[in-house]
Write a structure and sequence with these properties.
Length: 380
C-alpha cells in the first residue's frame, strides 16, 4: 500500500457551524410548533451527507430529507436510524429496499403510489408515504386535476394497511423573493389540497417551508419545515437581514511555487494578463478539474499571507496563478479560495455573483476526486 500524499486542495467542513445553523433554524420552527427536517441531499450539498446528518440530529433536527433512494440507503448504512424522507424517484424504481430500511417515500402520482403499495404488500410491511401536491412549481408533484384520485387511492391503501399517509407536502417556487405573489397563491392551493386529503379520511401532517420560508414565513411552517441551504450557512434571503448563519465550507490549497518576474512578462495560456511592473507570482495547484470554474479566470481574488490578491491569467485544469505583488509569500503558505468571510477572504456567494448563479451550485460542485474533505469542529 502506497502512502497517501498531501492533498492538493482541501474542503474544510465546519461541523460547529452546521450545528449552530441547525439550532437557529430549529428554534424558529419550534416557536411555530413545527419540527425540523434537515435536507442532506446531494451529499449534504457537497459537505458530506453523513457528517451533516449526524451534526443536524444532535442540534435540533427531527428527521432528514434526501432526493434519491440511494442517498437514503447510504444514511442507513452509516447507522443513522432517524426518520428519512426520499422524494424523487426514477421511472421503474424498486421501492422494496427503501421500505425494508424504514425510509419514507413521497408519491406524486397514482402510478407511483401503487408501485410503493405493491412493494410494501410484497414485503408484508406498511410503507410510510408523503403525498406531494404541485401547487405551482410545475415540477415534481401531483397535478391538481389528479389530486382527488391520488388521495382517494391513498386512503384505500391506508385502510388496507398497505400504506400510512404521513403527510401532504409541496414546494415553493419563489420563497426567496420576498413578497412574491406566487408564495401566497401556492399557500392557498396547498390549503385546498390538504382539505381534500382530510375529506378523504386522511389525517396527515403538512410541510411546505424551505430555507427561505423557514426564515421569513412562520405562517407557512405548519407541522414541519425543510431547511436545506441555510443548514450550510448560506443565506437564501440576505435582503431580509442578517439571520446569524455561518458558512460551513472553506476551500483552500497552498502555494507550490514562487517566482519573481519583471514587468512585461505574461501569464498562462493566451497571455491574457501581463505584469505592468515587477511582481511576485504564486502558483497554486488547483484548477477547473478541482472545481474552480475556468470562466472565473482573472475575476477572483484569493486570501494569501493575510491579504486578498488577484488570480491572474487563464485558469488551467490543474493550476492557477496569483499576483502577490511584494508580499513575502513562500512555498507552503495557505491559500484560501473561499471561506466564511470572517478574515476578509472571498466567499462562495462572491463566486456565485461573478458567475451569475447561486451559491447552491458553487458548494455542491466542489467535492472532486483530487480534493480532500475534512470535517473540523464539534464532530458529533
Amino acid at each position: 500500500m502506497y502512502p497517501q500524499p498531501a492533498p492538493r486542495a482541501e474542503l474544510l467542513i465546519d461541523v460547529g457551524a452546521i450545528q449552530s445553523n441547525l439550532t437557529l433554524l430549529a428554534e424558529r420552527a419550534h416557536r411555530s410548533g413545527a419540527r425540523t427536517m434537515a435536507v442532506v441531499k446531494a451529499d449534504g450539498y457537497g459537505h458530506g451527507a453523513i457528517t451533516v446528518a449526524r451534526a443536524a440530529l444532535t442540534s435540533g433536527a427531527d428527521c432528514l430529507g434526501v432526493a434519491s433512494v440511494g442517498e437514503a440507503l447510504e444514511l442507513r448504512a452509516a447507522g443513522i436510524t432517524a426518520p428519512v424522507l426520499c422524494w424523487l424517484h426514477a421511472s421503474g424504481e424498486d421501492f422494496a429496499p427503501a421500505i425494508s430500511a424504514d425510509i419514507e417515500l413521497s408519491a406524486s402520482s397514482v402510478g407511483g403510489l401503487r408501485a410503493i403499495g405493491g412493494a410494501a404488500a410484497g414485503l408484508g410491511r406498511t410503507a410510510r408515504v408523503h403525498l406531494k401536491i404541485d401547487t405551482g412549481l410545475n415540477r415534481n408533484g401531483c397535478s391538481p386535476a389528479q389530486w382527488a384520485e391520488l388521495v382517494d387511492e391513498a386512503a384505500k391503501a391506508q385502510a388496507d394497511g398497505v400504506l400510512d399517509v404521513v403527510a401532504v407536502c409541496s414546494h415553493l417556487a419563489c420563497a426567496d423573493e420576498l413578497g412574491h405573489p406566487s408564495i401566497d397563491m401556492q399557500a392557498r392551493r396547498f390549503a385546498q389540497a390538504y382539505e381534500q386529503a382530510r375529506a378523504a379520511g386522511l389525517r396527515p401532517l403538512r410541510h411546505l417551508a424551505n430555507s427561505a420560508a423557514t426564515l421569513t414565513r412562520p405562517d407557512l411552517h405548519f407541522d414541519l419545515v425543510r431547511p436545506g441551504i441555510a443548514v450550510y450557512g448560506l443565506d437564501p434571503v440576505p435582503q431580509h437581514g442578517n439571520h446569524g448563519l455561518r458558512p460551513a465550507m472553506t476551500f483552500r490549497s497552498s502555494v507550490s511555487l514562487v517566482k519573481r518576474v519583471p514587468a512585461g512578462e505574461s501569464v498562462s495560456y493566451g497571455h491574457a494578463w501581463t505584469a505592468s511592473e515587477e511582481t511576485t507570482l504564486a502558483l497554486v495547484p488547483v484548477g477547473y478539474a478541482d472545481g474552480v470554474p475556468r470562466s472565473l479566470s482573472g475575476r477572483i481574488t484569493v486570501w494569501v499571507h493575510g491579504e486578498r490578491r488577484p488570480q491572474v491569467g487563464r485558469m488551467c485544469m490543474d493550476q492557477l496563478v496569483v499576483d502577490c505583488g511584494d508580499l513575502p509569500v513562500q512555498e507552503g503558505d495557505e491559500v484560501v479560495l473561499f471561506g466564511p468571510g470572517d478574515r476578509g477572504e472571498p466567499t462562495a456567494t462572491e463566486w456565485a455573483g461573478e458567475l451569475g448563479t447561486i451559491h447552491y451550485e458553487i458548494v455542491t460542485g466542489m467535492y472532486r476526486p483530487r480534493v480532500a474533505r475534512t470535517a473540523v469542529g464539534a464532530v458529533p
